[in-house]
Design a protein that fits this description.
5 helices, 32% strand, 26% helix, five-stranded parallel β-sheet, 2 domains, 231 residues, five-stranded antiparallel β-sheet
Length: 231
């Protein structure tokens, strides 16, 4: 879990709670990401990109005093919904004055909080981040020395795509894309951002133009090559 998107309003009243959430995310070794400086009220392509790049999303649903019919800030719910479409782990922190059952997501899990004393809710949030952290695992890097794949990367970068899925006991997750591909002295380095644990197996697919490659990766073993140095 490297990046956590925090969907929130940009009112001065909400700033202290947003800061506390950011501090908690930092404490887990992750980077908090928001839509600040991008307008916030519209789900722009840049905000979509930030949510897509994040591993999880926290929606801070604070009370909104107006007569628009929205129980909380509409763009926060829109960002929450977009993350759900991407199958990202999501949780909403919901002000007790907000009618969560009036939102488009009444059946989704949420954490209620009292605006005057949100600390118990923040403790619940710590527990969720701990579970997400354990499930997310850590990134792994693959070194590809296949000349055909390297040539495909160099000549077809626009169509070059890498996706992967993780599984255990013959049950695999959905495929996730990664654009963390770079050319190194030893070959092509592909970073898989989130692989849960050492007993998970990973399936990787590479495609470029009309060519496709597939491989299985196990973190239980490290493949090494030995050279004979004496007789």
């Amino acid at each position: 879990m490297d990046r956590v998107f925090i969907a929130h309003s940009f009112s001065d009243a909400d700033r202290p709670l947003v800061q506390r959430l950011g501090d908690i995310v930092h404490a887990f070794g992750a980077t908090p990401v928001t839509g600040r400086r991008l307008g916030g009220a519209v789900l722009t392509q840049e905000i979509k990109s930030r949510i897509s790049d994040a591993d999880v999303l926290i929606a801070l649903c604070t009370y909104r005093e107006d007569k628009s019919g929205w129980p909380t800030h509409p763009w926060v719910l829109t960002e929450f919904g977009f993350a759900l479409e991407l199958n990202r782990p999501c949780i909403a922190l919901v002000d007790s004055r907000v009618a969560w059952d009036k939102t488009p997501y009444p059946d989704r899990e949420y954490i209620p909080f009292d605006a005057g004393a949100p600390y118990l809710a923040l403790l619940d949030m710590v527990e969720h981040l701990g579970v997400w952290r354990a499930d997310a695992g850590a990134p792994i890097q693959l070194l590809i020395d296949d000349e055909e794949i390297i040539r495909a990367f160099l000549t077809n970068r626009r169509s070059f795509q890498v996706r992967y899925r993780c599984g255990r006991e013959a049950r695999f997750s959905q495929f996730r894309d990664t654009d963390r591909v770079m050319l190194d002295a030893g070959g092509l380095v592909i970073t898989l951002p989130t692989v849960p644990s050492r007993d998970h197996h990973v399936e990787v697919e590479i495609s470029a133009d009309r060519a496709q490659w597939i491989c299985a990766v196990s973190r239980q073993y490290i493949s090494v090559k030995f050279e004979r140095v004496n007789s």
